[in-house]
Amino acid sequence: MLGVAAGLLAGIVLGTISGLVPGIHSNTLAGIAAALSVPLILVFGIDGVCAMIVSMMIVHTFVDAVPSTFLGVPDPDTVLSVLPAHKLCLQGSGQGAVRVSALGSLWGFILCLPLFALFVLVLPLVQGYVDWGIGLVILLAAGLLIVFSKAPAWSFAVFMVSGILGIYAMRFSYFSFGVFGIGESLLPLLTGLFGIPVLLTSMKSVTKPAAQSFSGLLISPKQILKNGMKGAAAGAIVGWLPGFSSGTANALLAVRRSSDVEKTDPREYLVSTSAANTANAVLGLAALYAIGRMRSGAMVTLASFELPSMFLLILVAGIAALAGYFLTVGISVFCRRFMCLNQGVLARIVLIFLVGMTVVFCGPFGILILVLATLVGLIPGMIGIPRIFCMGAIMLPVMLFMFDILNF
């Protein structure tokens, strides 16, 4: 148990780092852990390494709200929540936005526990009957997003262009070769679509963000519970259906408000998306134990080891969730001071860092994807539609893959 405790603590530290540093995802660190599995097992033992991976994955889903809110830079799990969160930050409510996100993640963990038990009992019986319908679910979600938008033609165009770019990035991802070997395409793709446009806007803006203050969550317990349940349900869908991501779950949550995501109930939306991200991480673990399906890079790494008791990892996840909540709340108090800095200079520093990360992890092909994605990501702001339709970069390739039209 000493090795498990040490692994848990190490995972909390690594999850905090991956959550705070733009461009680094828990899946990236999990891949590094797989490469260093021999020395890690010597230090922590197999159960300790598994505890490290699970706690790192859970803490990341909490802490990644901080850069999304204060810097406007997303990772694959926060590409849509960054829209209302960063807007609240510019209005002076960044700390409140982070606290709401952390509370949503905590409720997502609590509410997904009954679903965890349901997954373990039911998935082995029904999985074979539903795999064929996943592409139809994505098609329905994309259609609703476009139909309910205020400019369906432009929304469809952005969705398709970003989708084609996503297909290209994923189809030729083997060209993404950085300093540490084979990279991945999502880092430059989603950074260009959602992160760089926000940074470029910050660099050009002459308006200083409002002074940061915290005057309460400004959301009722009933709204928190309702939207936490909604997010947990979306996370359950993602944890169940192969090919879905947390970003896809967030797109599903935005269907009814896609015409004006940035103006409607931002705190409720943050609770839902944060709950979905954490529930997805936990229920991905249930899918691994129930049917051997690996829903994320962290689960792939975890499956490479001899799995310990499921109940041990649930306990580890619970402790990590509590640690992630308190860490996120504490960090938000400190990070609000960043908004007192010159936002143009800060945006340039983050931009240079993200480009550097792309070069290191993805090489020249990553830079190409980053440039193309940035050009596409600038379009919604120019024509006045939400950037949510850039999620076509994920949804269209997955949909075509599930219809067996494309193979990656």
Strand content: under 5%
Low-pLDDT windows of residues: 257-262
Terminal CA distance: 41 Å
Can you count the helices?
16
| Secondary structure: helix percent | over 70%
Largest sheet: 2 strands, antiparallel
Q: Supply the number of structural domains.
A: 1
User: Order of SSEs, N→C?
Assistant: HHHHHHHHEEHHHHHHHH
Overview of this protein structure:
The radius of gyration is 20 Å and the shape is globular. It contains 16 helices and two strands. With 408 residues, the protein is mainly α. It has one domain (2-402). The chain is 74% helix and 1% strand. The N and C termini lie far apart (41 Å). It has a two-stranded antiparallel sheet with strand order 1-2.
Which keywords apply here?
globular; mainly alpha; 408 residues; 2 strands; two-stranded antiparallel ribbon
Give the topology, please.
Layout: H1 2-20, H2 26-35, H3 37-63, H4 65-70, H5 82-90, H6 94-130, H7 134-147, H8 152-171, E1 177-178, E2 181-182, H9 186-204, H10 221-240, H11 246-253, H12 266-291, H13 297-303, H14 310-335, H15 343-383, H16 392-402
Helix pairs in contact: 1-3, 1-14, 2-3, 2-13, 3-12, 3-14, 5-6, 6-10, 6-12, 6-14, 7-16, 8-15, 8-16, 9-15, 10-11, 10-12, 11-12
